[in-house]
Fold this sequence. Notes:
Layout: E1 2-7, H1 10-18, E2 27-30, E3 37-40, H2 42-46, H3 59-64, E4 68-71, H4 74-88, E5 95-99, E6 102-106, H5 115-130, E7 134-139, H6 142-154, H7 156-159, E8 162-164, H8 168-177, H9 188-196, H10 202-206, H11 210-228, E9 245-255, H12 258-278, E10 281-292, E11 303-314, H13 317-331, E12 338-346, E13 349-350, H14 366-380
Amino acid sequence: MFALVDCNNFYASCQRVFNPKLIGKPIVVLSNNDGCVIARSNEAKSLGIPMGAPAFEYQKLFEEKEVHVFSTNFALYGDMSSRVMNMLSTFSPDIEIYSIDEAFLQFKGFDNFDLQEIGLKMRKTVTKGTGIPISIGIAPTKGLGKIANKIAKKYPEETGSVYVIDSEEKRIKALRWTKIEDVWGIGRRHAKRLYSLGIKTAYQFTQLPDEWVKNKMSIVGLRLKRELQGESVLELEITPKKKMIATTRSFDNMLTTLEDMQERIATYAVLGAEKLRREEGHCSMVNVFIQTNKFREDQPQYYRNIIITNEYPTDSSIDIMKMALKGLSAIYRDGHHYKKAGVIIMGISPNEQTQLSLFNNENPKHAPLMSTIDKMNQSYGTQKVKFGSQALDRVWKMRQEKLSPFYTTKIKDVIKVKV
Length: 419
């Protein structure tokens, strides 16, 4: 059996843990530079605030409805996520951290245990230990676990926020309840196609012929169908690795010179390379993009991206920066006001699986240099040691006008109790 554990309104819940006055109040969390809404509490959803809503367009609504607005605090959210995942791992050693607020657990050898009771105990433990409310769906497959979780979240009073699909009757009932567009792995395009054929529920999807599903939705769709039929074909990914690492930013002010763009791209490449080394990976491709301000219709618009490949996999900031700058030089055009740019590291492989070649391989001097730079930056602060292509006197900082304290990661922000 698999359990999907999902933290309810995770970002909003993290804020409520340290400020209980926010319980029951509408909350939204904004993206980098306070650009758009990336998380909403149920109360904010009921106000009609959509995901991705530009913050400046909804500023009046925020004020009128007394919506509590927060900048992203990834240090806090990441630390709270680690606490939740550590507690969950005490219930089963087989755990896949699917995202910052979701995890799959596999229960092997629990045939004689009451999984409903175990789920309730998990919820009580996590809620008491972290203050984060969770919903749990338990089923024979990961796909059914997703559906069970939706039921637990939809009907918390009836289920205790824990729902177990442990019979054929429950499986069919759950599939008939689930809309096809809500099925994990069914995208908008497939949902539209299925709707045109009269397939509106997950149960109807499972009645389609295997051959049709494979031809129209590939082997991925066929695996999903079998998962919903109760056949486990998706295993836990105990140590999932990122397939790409993106470092993208909107500029405070629009940039108009190649020199300024080179400095930004070099910095993004270095930041991405640092993340890559923390993931213990190497990369073989870098995607670079630049774009103007799409909201400034009075100015000429321009967007381009390019993928640069390397002769050998690398995790060196020097190599990745050179690739990114090569890409920028190919797509940069004078006469434009650039508002955003990014470097996306692709073709990532684990260090132990890095493919070497006979003649071209990474410079052996880079590894100890990168290790030393990483240690110094960790000890003395981010971007204390820089490369010549970066502005030595400039420290990039996001606009975070509504940033909450770092309650669990900075000693100065720890809550003080007067006794």
